[in-house]
Amino acid sequence: MSRNDHDTPRRGRPPTGARRGDARPARGPRPQDARAAEEARRASEIARTTGLPPEHALRVARGQADANDLMRRMALEAEAENLVRRHGLVRSLAMQVALGHADLQQVLRRMRIEAHLAAHADETALVPGAELVIGLTGQRALRARVEQVDRYEVDLLDLDAGVPLRAHKLQLKYAGAPDALRRVRRAVAWDASRKGRVAEIAARPQERYGCSDRRLGELVDARTPVRVTLVEGEVLQGEIVRVCRYEFVLATKQGEVTIFRHALADLR
């Protein structure tokens, strides 16, 4: 073996003076670690000064979002949540109000009208057993008890004559409690162009005076005084207080009277 063979370290062995397990030289911080630490510091500062949640603040720190836009969005969402809690709006509509795309008062008015119509749609004065004064076409009025109500006709008992009467619903113009109707009839005015006319109400709804649920509901909500003219010339004035599918209730100074909508000739 030569001298050189003794002096040259064998492959795989540590050089002379080195031992296995010695630590490798320490490396400096990686650039990405330093960048993440700086983003976290900036995000913490943004969250502290703006009140943004940490995840939003981090997006701002990274340049992925604008702080003012995020704060504006948070304010809109908070306003929408408040509208949902206070007024029962659906969230999509509440956001439209918060954005200024819908007027809150108009939205609330529409909600009140829809709630009123839904609550009273199926109500009627023609309840079996009810005693009413009923105005019929042909300039007739009678005190009657409702015996039975069918789809198109109603069975009445004339309380003064003691005889039964079957009437088509289109013959009915108005109805009310006897005491109230006596007072109301004394206050009825007449449309000169219709007074004394005997009317036959059209069977087809499109041939009658049109008055939508929406219009009637708006009059109820606004408590607007109205002037009601019936097909044979009776004119009553008051406020509409209840709207049903086929009737509405008019509150006059003398009392309440139910108006059958098919008997309308004018409403203003």
Question: What is the count of structural domains?
Answer: 2
Name of the CATH first level of the largest domain: Mainly Beta
- The helix tally amounts to 8
Shape: rod-shaped
What's the mean pLDDT score? 89
Intertermini distance: 128 Å
Tell me the strand percentage band: 25-35%
What's the helix-strand series?
HHHHHHEEEEEHEHEEEEE
Could you name the CATH topology of the largest domain? SH3 type barrels
The largest pleated sheet is described as:
11 strands, antiparallel
Description:
The chain has 268 residues and is of the alpha+beta class. It folds into two domains: 33-120, no CATH class; 131-267, SH3 type barrels, CATH 2.30.30.100. It has eight helices and eleven strands. The chain has helices at residues 3-7, 31-50, 54-61, 67-87, 91-98, 104-120, 178-186, 213-222, and strands at residues 131-136, 140-149, 153-158, 163-168, 172-176, 189-190, 225-230, 234-243, 247-252, 255-260, 264-267. Strands 1, 2, 3, 4, 5, 6, 7, 8, 9, 10 and 11 form an eleven-stranded antiparallel beta sheet that branches. Strand 9 (247-252) and strand 10 form a beta hairpin. The radius of gyration is 41 Å and the shape is rod-shaped.
Keywords:
268 residues; SH3 type barrels; 8 helices; 37% helix; rod-shaped
